[in-house]
Design goal:
Cytochrome-c3 Hydrogenase, Chain A, domain 2, Rossmann fold, about 25% helix, alpha/beta, 2 domains, about 325 residues, single chain, 5-stranded parallel sheet
Length: about 325
């Protein structure tokens, strides 16, 4: 039996909400499989709320082992002088101290990993990720931080993160199945973040022929006109579906915002339109050479079947008189 301590920092609680929606496995079954005692979590802790201060004191003193420290929400450095002094949250020092004692440390959600929404704009709070500040190393913890298990902070980003990503990462750490080589440049598990959200998108046929939607609710690809960042988002969202394994952003007609990226959200504005130069999107796909994309896109449009051309800008399937539905 291992001890899991879940710390809520500055955030909306989206990862907790996502985790509570886990269905395969159900969250309680997952916790049994993990064989953990939940030391602290608003919804899951085994101890009464009144005892959490004692639990934290025991963790800080080293009397209670912390095998898995999970941080949800952005952390932050001391607040700027322009803000009231009471905005300095004392738990940041506690997180630092417990992280140095924990066997493994996991940041869940883009805010905890990189700063995310809490760090966007002018960032008056000085919000950072646990070991990254956006795409730079170094956050609340130093760039060379390693847990007692020998790993850096394992980042599980998303806004929110998929429950499988969180449960799978915790299980792999419990089973000693994660090494540094299994993490990418931003310390994300490659098994979940080694693909693009674009992969397995049901609109890929439209994408290949550059048959693009002109407005929302059209059936075409959302990349060229409506700001979809699925070709930039490193995640398996369209293979590991959401909402009882039925949906994803693009399956619901919503453009991907690349929420697993260290640069989310500021690095991907405008959200619902595609910035272009000379008619070519400025944010080109990660999985093809830029010169290839520019050269082939015009040819793809010329080769586009009439069926796709018409359906791309239609709210429902539209067939030519001499065509039959597939």
């Amino acid at each position: 039996m291992a001890n899991l301590l879940w710390v809520q920092a500055a955030g909306c609680g989206g990862e907790t909400a996502s985790l509570l929606n886990s269905d395969r496995p159900h969250l309680l079954a997952a916790l049994r499989a993990l064989d953990v005692t939940v030391l602290g979590h608003t919804y899951l802790q085994d101890q009464p709320t009144r005892d959490i201060d004692q639990v934290l004191a025991g963790c800080l003193a080293g009397r209670v082992a912390v095998d898995l420290l999970v941080v949800e929400g952005a952390t932050y450095q001391p607040a700027p002088r322009a803000l009231p002094r009471e905005s300095d949250h004392p738990s940041m020092e506690n997180i630092r101290a417990i992280a140095r004692l924990a066997t493994h440390v996991v940041a869940v959600g883009t805010c905890a990993c990189f700063g995310g929404v809490v760090a966007c704009g002018r960032n008056p709070l000085g919000a950072v990720g646990l070991q990254h500040s956006r795409d730079e190393k170094g956050g609340l913890l130093e760039p060379d931080y390693r847990s007692r298990g020998g790993l850096p902070v394992v980042n599980v980003p998303g806004c929110p993160a998929h429950p499988d990503w969180m449960i799978g990462t915790l299980w792999a750490l419990r089973a000693n199945r994660i090494a540094q080589a299994d993490l990418d440049l931003f310390n994300r598990p490659r098994v979940f973040y080694g693909k693009l959200a674009h992969h397995a998108c049901p609109r890929n046929e439209y994408y290949e022929f550059k048959a693009s939607a002109a407005s929302f609710s059209h059936q075409g690809c959302l990349f060229e006109n409506l700001g979809c960042k699925g070709t930039l988002c490193e995640s398996d969202c369209n293979e590991r579906l959401w909402l009882a394994r039925t949906g994803s952003c693009t399956r619901g007609g919503f453009p991907c915002l690349s929420c697993t990226s260290p640069l989310f959200p500021d690095g991907f504005v405008p959200f619902f339109e595609t910035a272009k130069i000379g008619g070519i999107p400025t944010s080109l796909p990660l999985d093809v050479p830029k010169a290839w994309y520019v050269g082939i896109s015009g040819l793809s449009k010329l080769a586009c079947p009439e069926r796709l051309r018409r359906n791309a800008v239609s709210f429902k399937p539209a067939w030519s008189e001499d065509e039959e539905p597939d």
